[in-house]
Amino acid sequence: MKAQANGKSVYSGLPFSDFLSHITPSNKCPTRTTLLTWLCTSLLSLINIGSTTAFNALLSLATIGFYFSYGIPILMFSIRRFSRDRPIEFGPWNMGRLGFAVNILAMAFCTFLIIFLPFPVILPVTAQNMNYASVVFLGVILFSLVDWVIRGRKRYTGPIREVRSEASSDIVQQTVLEEKIS
User: Fold this and answer.
1) Is residue 161 part of a domain?
2) pLDDT truncated to tens, each residue of the chain (182 aa)?
3) 121: in domain
4) Of 34, 29, 30, nearest to 21 (Cα)?
């Protein structure tokens, strides 16, 4: 998504983000993105007509993606607990000493599902009943990494963070990149 932060253009790391992030003036929504999501979902739902094995692989793939996306922040948060430079400032509610154990348990659960969801549901395994979710998942990860190295890291600057100053009610916009530098 293209936005302005401190006079500089900020881009998202996704391909075709300039085209897809267009906000339609009549309804003030990203209509192109909404239509693309609808089209992809509709086409993917047709897979069940052709093959139940492919549909099961698609469901496994979606679940693997969810648990992978849940596991990454849990892992990063668990690692950050040991940081002496920038300790975590907990909010008014936290789990105390039990929190780290819950994080480890959640990581174990995510890892278990990521490993076992791609397994085939029928034995003996043939090319027709194989669950190709792991192959597709690794392909998407590989594509994402290549896209990041070639294009994304040059264009993506991070989200804009709004910080309220205690001295005044003015909102100061600061990019995460600028925060990391200081």
Assistant:
1) no
2) 444 444 444 455 567 778 888 888 888 888 999 999 999 888 888 887 877 777 877 888 888 989 999 999 999 988 888 877 877 777 888 888 898 899 999 999 999 988 888 888 778 888 777 878 888 888 888 998 998 888 877 877 777 766 665 555 545 555 554 555 55
3) yes
4) 30
Q: How far apart are alpha carbons 172 and 63 in whole angstroms?
A: 38
Q: What is the pTM of this model?
A: 0.60
CA distance 45 to 115: 25
As a residue count, the chain comes to 182
**What's the CA gap between 141 and 139, in Å, rounded?**
5
Is the torsion defined by CA of 116, 120, 121, 124 positive or negative? Answer: negative
Number of domains in the chain: 1
Assess if residue 164 is contained within a domain.
no
Assigned domain for 174 exists: no
